[in-house]
Amino acid sequence: MAAGCCGVKKQKLSSSPPSGSGGGGGASSSSHCSGESQCRAGELGLGGAGTRLNGLGGLTGGGSGSGCTLSPPQGCGGGGGGISLSPPPSCGVGTLLSTPAAATSSSPSLSSVASSSSPGSRKMVVSAEMCCFCFDVLYCHLYGYQQPRTPRFTNEPYPLFVTWKIGRDKRLRGCIGTFSAMNLHSGLREYTLTSALKDSRFPPMTRDELPRLFCSVSLLTNFEDVCDYLDWEVGVHGIRIEFINEKGSKRTATYLPEVAKEQGWDHIQTIDSLLRKGGYKAPITNEFRKTIKLTRYRSEKMTLSYAEYLAHRQHHHFQNGIGHPLPPYNHYS
């Protein structure tokens, strides 16, 4: 199931906020983001199984929003009519997805940004090398080189998102991921191209954009069903909601952990934005919010700029089986 963090045009699960609180979305297998913190979900067939999602907020269709949608062939819009409005059946908090223990370290020479919403002091699994691999995959695709060989970082399965931003203001350029655990080698390879080329809110990326790109890899962990729709922490948890819309159809939408904090939203604002992102158009009442089924989760995130990618590759050329020339570095214009 793929999902996006931005607005959605198709039925998919969304993980990021729409600019404003509008934007439709639903549950589907793949998801992507468009805009600073936007992603949308879409059923994009670039190989590999699993649910794709978006974890950043954004507008449906446009490239200026900030949101994400989630979709496996479910779509951000969800489906299935005739479902009665009732409170979520499961109220106990339970772990839905366990996190593999494997971990890798990132290069100490990079000024990349790493963050984790997971508790404890365990080593982070996400690494700068994962972002470098995503840049390798995109670069090879755009220039027609043979795809890079198997990377050295762990191949444990994780739900994941690949997010692209561009320019000094880091505008969202593409974001798609999956809530289904995928082996990282194939999952990152697939969603690198899906988020860069298949986010319907944006045109496919071009060679000219490479020098201005930022790549983020998010690994999702610690999924828990909660009874209270307010039982999650802004800036710590990502949330995925399921609800029945005014037509009786089930819809889903998601925001990655950073979205609410970046937008300056509280719990209610985040929930309401996510409902709008999921396509709910009726007035939102507190009674309706109580019928939402909410799953909270955490994430590990690493961000790398193109310049950092080049610096890393200049010191570790061929380390990961890269057989193509290093791309030329271009400063921001």
UniProtKB/TrEMBL annotation:
What PROSITE patterns does the database record attribute to this sequence? AMMECR1 (PS51112)
Q: What's any one GO cellular component for it? A: mitochondrion
Pfam families found in the cross-reference section: AMMECR1
Task: Give the source's domain of life in one word.
Answer: Eukaryota
Q: Compositionally biased, Low complexity: which spans? A: 28-37, 101-119
User: From the record, what ranges are coiled-coil?
Assistant: none
Q: Which Gene3D superfamilies match?
A: Hypothetical protein ph0010, domain 1
AMMECR1 domain segment(s) = 119-313
Region Disordered: start and end of each range?
1-39, 101-120
NCBIfam families given in the database record = TIGR00296 family protein
Indicate what this protein is called per its UniProt record: AMMECR nuclear protein 1
